[in-house]
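Example 3.
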Amino acid sequence: MENFYITTPIYYVNDAPHIGHAYTTIACDAMARYHRLLNHSVKFTTGTDEHGQKVYKAARDSGIDPQLFTDEVSKRFRELVATGSNILNVTNNDFIRTTEDRHKKAAQQFWKRIKDNGFIYLGAYSGWYSVRDEAYFQESELVDGKAPTGAPVEWVEEQSYFFKLSAFQDKLLEFYEKNPDFIIPASRYNEVVSFVRGGRNYEQGALKDLSISRTSFDWGIKVPDDESHIMYVWIDALTNYLTSAGFPDTDSTDWLTYWGTKEKRNCTHVVGKDILRFHAVYWPAFLMAAELPLPKQIVAHGWWTIEGEKMSKSLGNVLTPHAMIKEAGSIDALRYFMLRAMSFGNDGDFSKARLNETVNAELSNNIGNLAQRTLSLIQKNCNGSIPQPDGLTSVDESLFQKVREFVEKYHENMKQYSFREAIEQVIGISSLANEYINSEAPWKLKNDNPKRMNTVLHNILKILGIIGILIQPFTPDAADKLLTQSGIKPENRSFLIIPKLIELTISELSEIISKNLPAPEGIFPRIVSL
Ligand code: MSP
């Protein structure tokens, strides 16, 4: 069996959740659901990043003890993804907080492994630090006295442990070369490779040793054997991916199944473009230093703007997941829009007009109408029992051939995290079936040619089942309704059913499809603008 481990970044708890957090979590959930539908064994984790100067400052500014502060803010992230039923309708198996004991233990063991292998030494750091980015910058990297992200920087001089990042330049380059799919999309792969190459050519190069501990505040995990230092928040945070897979117990089933081995790496990290360097450069170098297997893939997505503007507190346009769901009318509609509107790797814009337009045109008018028309005809003309076909015409054969091609492209796109294009294939199937029902006009056939009417309705019913199966990763609740109304039994909704639905007649599929259909109900409500 294939094993698949997918992670969201863990979110800083300096502030409440927003669109960026919702998006990554939903994208990972769509992928986790996709792999389950391929009958893979899936682990999906998310959580909160609770240490570091940014969170410490936010707690201090609120006048609350950092632990109590993080308990409170982390709760707002947990309610988005709580096991059972949750606001984003996601299916994560774990929620990890970096203040948990299991994580502190893992981070300290990780540090020890790197230290024992000779890649950590004590020195002194003097340079710039951006609290907002939780990142160190060299003088040459500053733009108008600020971090490249526009965040303010402060001068830091302190005793610090360093990680010998410079020792990993060639090893990283060799690894990227051997694994061209390690970072997707390809444009980001190229960006990372040239960043790492830069370190070889310039004295001020990218791959200078990295400061990995702090002494000027103490909100963090203590460095083993030197309690005057806490770990730099990124080495602490990245380790969460190991903690959740059972580290330091590298013999555990969870570890071997989900983190994997050097020969069979299983973990995929989905991250925003701003934190790619940490995941695609520092993280693999830390893992090489600790002699642990690397993740399988790093997937980098773009950023959302809101109505064409960068989202920011100062502009007052920060969108919370609750506000977005309200806008969309349901979590399904929001999930659909986010996965449909962002082209993989590029930035996307969250606009209310486009949200309404996309949901109404594609879900309500296209798929919704197809379902409504077909299911009510079956109810009316066939008493709700499944119509039996009477031989396929060449038009029917070509319809199914095209469906097969759409399904194939759907999978190709999903494998590349191109949700937008994968959804396009589902809409393609629905548009095709709408054209077919329009030209075959089964509503006219009841008296003249009931056998043909039955065949046409039988064909569309199977296509509705296929659409329902394919949209499960994106709109799980609506997909469930569509599948139930199309008679597809709950235990038969994996992708393996699709070829059967195409090849066999419904009477040969009694294991999969129930005999009678429930009375049809609306599946994709329209968004009504106020
Ligand atoms: N704590 C770190 C991650 C550590 S992972 C070991 C962090 N947290 S964050 O809360 O600031 O950001 C989490 C994710 O949200 C990042 O992937 C970031 O790219 C994403 N987004 C933040 N704002 C965003 C948008 N406006 N649009 C899309 N994603 C954005 O970084």
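The chain has 19 helices and 17 strands. The mean pLDDT is 94.
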